[in-house]
Amino acid sequence: MLEEDDVPYEQAILKNPNDLSPWLQYVEATQSRPLAFRAWVLERATAQMGRSYKLWKFYLDLRRQNIATISYYDHPEEFMAVNRLFEKAVVLLNKMPRIWIDYLEHLMRQPDVTAVRTTFDQALQSLPVSQHDRLWPMMLEFTQSANDKTAERIWHRYLEFDPLATEDYIELLIDRGFYQRASDQLIAILNSPHFISTKGRSSLQVLEELIELLVNHREIRGIDVEGAIKSAANRYPDQRGKLWVLLATYWIKRKQFDRARDVLEQGITSALTVRDFSEIFDSYVELEESIIAKLLEKEDPEHDTEVDRQMEAFEQLMDRRPFLVNDVLLRQDPNNVVEWEKRVGLWGDSIEQVVETYTKALETISPNHANGRLSQLWINYAKFYEQKCKDIATARIIFDKATKVPFKSVNELADIWIEWAEMELRADNFDRAIAVMEHATRGPKKSTIDFFDETKSPQERLHKSMKAWSFYLDLVESVGTLEQVQPLYERVFQLKIGTALTVINYASLLEQNEYFEESFKVFERGLEMFSYPIAFEIWNIYLNKAVQRQLGIERLRDLFEQALEQCPPNLSKPIYLMYGKLEEDRGLVRNAVKIYDRATKSVDGPSKLETYRYYISRVAENFGLPATRPIYQNAIDSLPDSDAKVVCDEFIDVEEKLGEVDRARALFGFASQFNDPQQAPFWTKWEEFEKKYGNEDTYKEMLRIKRSVQAQFETNLSYMASKMAKEAPMGFVTSTSQNTQQPPQQPDETTNPDQIDLDL
After folding, report:
1. Which pLDDT value is given to residue 737?
2. 686 exposed, middle or buried (CB, 10 Å; 0-12, 13-18, 19+)?
3. Spacing of C-alpha 630 from chain mean position
4. Residue 504 belongs to a domain
5. DSSP character string of 667-698
6. How far apart are CA 594 and CA 615, in angstroms?
């Protein structure tokens, strides 16, 4: 019923029935009135102003709020009444997306799926495409509760609106069991060059999903599964093992075990990596084990034969594994010598298979691309005939073929010839062995070929291989005569390929045959070929041999002077000592002393101290201890502090032996500058000396010097620590060890005032 407050609004409406403002004011004023009255006002308003979005929105919201807490099944008439209102509204306001959205939300509370779908179709037809994105999220959410067929249809339509949602569509198809359509969509994705995954998946991942779908759902038709998987394996070789196993699984699930075996067999014989092989082989083993297990479960005597056959096939498969792995590695690198050797070893004592493997290996491997020592494969092949087959004639044929192979290095070719000769030696064919090496080292009389010229074949450079010549020389020396060996050494010198060892061996051979002068001439020729440091070894042996031969002193002196002329200081010590010993042995001690003195001035490094010590020992033995004083003084002057400290210590012992206490004490004072008081041996020795020979004054003087030296060492240590701290990176402090004892009181003096100049 109308109230007094309603009269002004009613009068305003009567005056201007087509004016929206009075109606809106009236609706606003009735917010606190009963629902029925508010509905009566809005019903009149929407009837009068049928195209007013605001009035319809107020009215529809009011009616929806009224049934928000009730169920459709309890009050269906209420829901149907609201449905009729929405039907009127969308006819008048069909371009208003909010009205359609509210209507769809209202319908989704009711069980009539058809009404939802038809209304959604009407909304899409009424609204422009630019506003469809406001409807689709709600409909996609609706598909979660809709039946499978309805959900699929809605998603299929949505795909036309948003093609980027293909992957979500595929997920729904798989979840709802539409495997055929899912596979079709996956194939379409893979065939599209413009497809970009919204989920960040690669083409390989999409392909794997398709293949797993094909393998696990046999109801999918119209797709060549085997062709698709093999094509994928060729396209993605790094996934070959996994894809091959999936193909086998496809046939296993269809109970076609023979086809599964064929697939797995093809997989293990064509795998290119050990990883793929292992994956396929393990699946193969699992298949065979499962078949055997099922046969054993039946416990039917009629299946015993089949079980035995399956067990035998399984054992053969396991026995083949090492060969199959080897096949994989050889497919990766057919030039892998080591793998071919392993292949030979797998055959054990099967002569026919071993020979076949060697033959295939040598036909397959390219000498220029061989990975490993191809020569060793040829050698082992020949040894197989020699030792296993006892067929030395065939072994010779193999070696002969091997000598014509263009190996990567001359050393490999040399190994072939050497092994051939050694085989002849094992057969006691000494002349034949020599003939083999003579043929190997044969070359132009005046050869200009450079051994290191890689543009020349190994066969052209073999005659300059010192490896081949060394074996040839050793061979002829062991079974031939001097007359046979000499021309070979001369040929080596002519080719200018000899080493210091060649020179020494040739000279030693002549010496053994008592051709002493010829031996010395060989040494001379070797010294013309080599300079220091290689010449040092030749000189060392040459001089020893010359001294032992007791040549004239002048000739020997000339040899020693020649040896020392170009000798580096770090190598000269042994020659000087040998030279001095020669003079001593000939009774010319003073000459020897001069040589030792020269040595102390020429030798450098750690050898200098040792040379001085030897010099002192020889002078002491020949002239007595007093004569060593000048040598000690020179040593102290010329040696570094660390070595001078050692010499001082020994010099003190000499003076003490001679009873020269004052001189020894003076040496203690001089040597104190080299010895840190914290290092006990020197100072303990001085203290014992003073207790033995000194008095209270000399003992106090020793303590005073010790304090002075201690102060000097601490000053130097502080300076070094300060310097290191300045040079240290910012934020780091150089640590110094702390003395736990209280340091002695430092005197005013920082140096030893009584330090003496050792002018003895």
Report:
1. 40
2. buried
3. 63
4. no
5. HHHHHGGGS-TTSHHHHHHHHHHHHHH--HHH
6. 10
- Sign of the Cα torsion 733, 739, 740, 746 reads negative
In the predicted model, what is the mean pLDDT of the chain?
83
Please state the pTM of the whole predicted model.
Answer: 0.67
C-alpha 505/C-alpha 473 separation (Å) is: 10
Q: Is residue 328 one of the residues assigned to a domain?
A: no
Cβ-in-10-Å burial (0-12, 13-18, 19+) of 305 comes to: exposed
pLDDT tops 60 at residue 759: no
Backbone angles phi, psi at 336, to 5 degrees: -80, 105
Alpha-carbon Rg of the chain, whole angstroms?
53
Q: What percent of the chain has pLDDT over 90?
A: 21
Name, in order, each residue with C-beta under 8 angstroms of 181's C-beta and a sequence gap of 6 or more.
Answer: 152, 173
- Residues comprising the chain, all counted: 760
Instruction: Name the token pair of 731.
Output: 């934020």
Range of the domain at 751: 624-727+746-760
pLDDT, residue 640, reads 85
What's the sign of the alpha-carbon dihedral 425, 429, 430, 431?
Answer: negative
DSSP 372: S
234 in Cβ contact with 217 (< 8 Å)? no
Within 430-565, residue ranges assigned H as helices are 430-440, 458-461, 466-479, 482-495, 500-512, 516-529, 534-548, 553-565
How many structural domains is the chain composed of?
1
CA distance 640 to 652: 18
Cα separation of 331 and 326, whole Å? Answer: 9
Q: What average pLDDT does range 732-738 have in this prediction?
A: 42
Q: Is the pLDDT of residue 109 over 60?
A: yes
Look at residues 662, 656, 616 and name the one whose alpha carbon lies nearest to residue 635. Answer: 616
472 and 437 in contact (C-beta within 8 Å)?
yes
Res 745: pLDDT: 37
C-alpha span between 166 and 182 (Å, rounded): 10
pLDDT at residue 730, as a whole number: 46
Nearest one of 173, 194, 192, 175 to 183, comparing CA atoms: 173
- Please indicate, yes or no, if residue 331 is contained in any of the structural domains: no
Q: At what angle do helices 257-270 and 304-332 cross, to 10 degrees?
A: 30
Q: Give 476's contacts (C-beta < 8 A, 6+ positions apart).
A: 434, 484, 485, 488
Q: Does the N-terminal peptide bond of residue 640 adopt cis geometry, omega within 30 degrees of 0? A: no
The span from the CA of 104 to the CA of 42, in Å, is: 22
- Position 676 in a domain: yes
> Per DSSP, what are the bridge partners of residue 371?
336
Q: Which residue matches tokens 């493997």? A: 357
Tokens of 465: 């291989």
More confident residue, 751 or 618: 618
